[in-house]
Amino acid sequence: MTGFSADWLALREPADHRARNGDLAAALSARFGQTTPLRVTDIGAGTGSNLRATAPLLGREQHWTLVDYDPALLAEARRQLRAWADDASEADDGLWLTKDGRALHVRFREADLAQAPEVIGAQTPHLVTAAAFFDLVSADWIPRFADVVAQTGADFFTVLTCDGADDWQPPHPDDAAITAGFHADQARDKGFGPAAGNDATALLAEAFGRLGYQARSAPSPWLLDGTSPADAALIAALAAGTAGAAAESGTVSPDGADAWAQARRGARSCRIGHLDLLATRG
What is the 3-state secondary structure (H, E, C) of the chain? Predict the structure, then answer.
């Protein structure tokens, strides 16, 4: 699977956390806020950002399994979670953390989910979750994944899946060409087969619906303000990454992509569209 750097994940984490849809977060909390102990499996867990944002919505005793393909990111997750917690101690199979009155046991598991999605059910979770992950997987993999989740009896919650509803301001004459090139690059194989990209949330809702789940999605866009230093840094990184992907697609010249990126580093604002989804049984 295509890797992501810890620096990029750290840069995006504040925008990720504030973008999450409040209505779906409240619905998740209403369902699991009193469930204790609660078992959660987080896939494509990276450096643990999803745990840090989701744990406050859940019950007082939580048992998390963080699954990722990249051992370096899992090691960074361990480090960052220790720093985030009010108190932390090593366990034979992970960490014990306390945070805001909650007790969390966190395990770390390296796995290739493209080849073995069944590892998701190893801890018999009540909840399977992910962040900024499903636009990378293939349309063929999503039903396989949903079947595994359904076999465990778990609910499913995912956030920040790209939906393609992006907007940069002020307008630039090459916006359409760059967007088309970026979307073409999005569809390439990220390790699961041709990526579902902006169709992923609809495919997830369909897959879980066929299995008897009630699936609800809602928008969670990044709304970035170029006058904010933190947002401006993310805008600059997005501009470079978007332009690079568009050039890689072969539909935009490298010089044209670079010129667009140079212009976009000073964008007044940027909206990057995402969707969150909660799928529950019964």
Answer: CCCCCHHHHHHHHHHHHHHCCHHHHHHHHHHHCCCCCEEEEEECCCCCHHHHHHHHHCCCEEEEEEEECCHHHHHHHHHHHHHHCCEEEEECCEEEEEECCEEEEEEEEECCCCCCHHHHHCCCCCEEEEECCHHHCECCHHHHHHHHHHHHCCEEEEEEEECCCCEEECCCCCHHHHHHHHHHHHCCECCCCEECHHHHHHHHHHHHHHCCEEEEEEECCEEEECCCHHHHHHHHHHHHHHHHHHHHCCCCCHHHHHHHHHHHCCCCEEEECEEEEEEEEC
